[in-house]
Amino acid sequence: MKFDMHCHTKEGSPDGRIPIKEYIAGLKEQGFDGMLVSDHNSYNGYRYWKKHREEMPEFIVLKGIEYDTIDAGHILVILPTGVKVPLMELRGLPVNLLIDIVHRHGGILGPAHPCGERFLSLTNNRKFRKQKSLMERFDFVEAFNSCESEESNRGAQLLAAAYDKPGLGGSDSHKPDCVGTAWTCFEGNIRCETDLINHILSREPVCPGGVYYHGTTKDKLGKLNHLLVLSFWFYNKGGGILRKHKRSLALRSDDASTLNLYNEKRRSAH
């Protein structure tokens, strides 16, 4: 099965330019079987699809998110079918805490474009340089991103190989002409998020691939792109600070919910 594993929609990402209905139609026309909606810190694109799915072409749409950590760049997160964790929409968690929460809920996660821009990418953050063992805690690596450079993707592939992690491919599309430029091929039947998680954790074969897209904002800005990257740093830090109180409340709620679920499982076991 052929999936685009990194998709931004107009309904879910502030910089997304592709309505999800058009995204689905474009992928379907190119022979894809499904997509992972991975908007920035938001499930709104997926929610829109779920609410209007009867108006959309028949297609497999999976729920994911691209989470902005405070110390390790962008991380792709996939939770089991039906599992809701409000914290995923409150950017600014440190990466180790994010990993703990996602794994506690049965989900998987891995760095997006890990060798890409400073602040946005795992290996270009101080956290990774100080704690390279962090890679061992991830479940996969985005090994091909069609909006990245050849050097960036080559580094991502070497990273995946060095830590023996499955490599996924995604277009990271924000614009219509980027749709379908990258993919991941899976051997097996994936119909929902839990299927995908089980496939990756069982180390079933995955094959990333794609072609390079040269219409990104950073391509157009050239040397001025460093200003865009710096503005992201301020955006991420500021957003993280503003959401600190909400994250604290959500963390307490998440801990209580997890404890209640654990106790219910123990009672049912006896």
What does this structure look like?
- With about 270 residues, the chain is of the alpha/beta class.
- It has a single domain (about 1-270), classed as TIM Barrel (Alpha-Beta Barrel), CATH 3.20.20.140.
- The protein is built from 9 helices and 10 strands.
- Strand 1, helix 1 (about 20-30) and strand 2 (about 35) form a beta-alpha-beta unit.
- The radius of gyration is 18 Å and the shape is globular.
For the record, the count of structural domains works out to 1
User: Over the alpha carbons, how many angstroms does the gyration radius reach?
Assistant: 18 Å
Order of helices and strands: EHEHEEEHEHEHEEHEHHH
Quick check: average pLDDT? 90
Briefly, what is this?
With 270 residues, the chain is of the alpha/beta class.
Features:
globular, alpha/beta, TIM Barrel
Topology, pairings included?
Blueprint: E1 2-7, H1 20-29, E2 34-37, H2 44-52, E3 60-63, E4 65-68, E5 74-78, H3 95-104, E6 108-111, H4 126-130, E7 141-145, H5 150-162, E8 167-170, E9 182-186, H6 193-201, E10 206-210, H7 217-221, H8 225-242, H9 244-269
Parallel strand pairs: 1-2, 2-3, 7-8
Antiparallel strand pairs: 1-9, 4-5, 5-6, 9-10
